[in-house]
Amino acid sequence: MDNQKNRLTSSEITSLWAQYIQDTMSVCISKYVLAKVKDSEVYSLFEFTLELAEKHLHVLRDIFKAEKLDLPIGFTDKDVNLDAPPLFTDTFWLVYIHEMTMHGLAGYSISFSVSARKDIRDHYYQCNIDAMDLYNKSIEILISKGIYQRSPYFSKTERGHSITEWGYVMDLFGDKRQLNSMEAGNIYFNLKKSIAAKALVNGFKQVTKDKDIYSFMEECLHTASKNINIFSSLLQQENLQSPRLMDAEITNSDVAPFSDKLMVFHAGFLFHLATTYYAAAMITSMRIDVAGHCDASILRDLKTISSFGRIMIKKGWIEKLPRADDRKELS
Asked: Are 112 and 192 in the same domain?
């Protein structure tokens, strides 16, 4: 059936809307990074990132125009200061784009799975391929530079055994069993994301001049630091290495490279995503203390997300999504 006879569903509109905002943010960040980085491989990676974001935005604008839907405002050149000095090192930006690409892969997969119209599915199919290309490029550079941090290795493999004792899951007060591969892998995965987010908000806190936004970044920093400390200690108890912190990748610049709106949105976006990753780790963790720590981290992140919502509303930065028709108003 012709696409013109199939209106966009609410799920499709939401996916396209969210992607437009995120890709306009990506354009701003990529332009700034390209103006500052010295490493040729990192430069090439962000050239590719910018190319993909602009390609996706072209498709999105065509879809919104065809559907007679207003474009979101998103972010523009007004939200980036290309004259600002470097706020982060080239190493940070390399790790950053790798982590953000993983978020993109997760988001595009969901958008593909909730889309019914073929043109929308085709778009997200291509977005997934683009994100996988970017992921491969970024991880190859990380590995070649000796920067990539692998999740813990286990020295032995065991034959398959069934769990026959409740202590495998419920032992709170005795000697806890060692972390299994899924628990250790999830902890390491979430730690890497929290560490990158912590460095990002620490840099943003350093350059903002707005007291409300400074306080919000302080809260983000406190939440991320607590989560990092808890999950790092779980690995250390097993003599497993934690990912290294990235605070040393922040320069001493006090000039904001991005608008307050972009910095707050980016921080809130990362905390929103963190709750989903902690939830996935929680439901797959069979040690009750690990599941409990994931649950507590979700609650801490939700508190920070609440602060994010308040400041975005106070500043008038939240855009309204298209709404369902008000039948009472129409009658």
From this structure: no
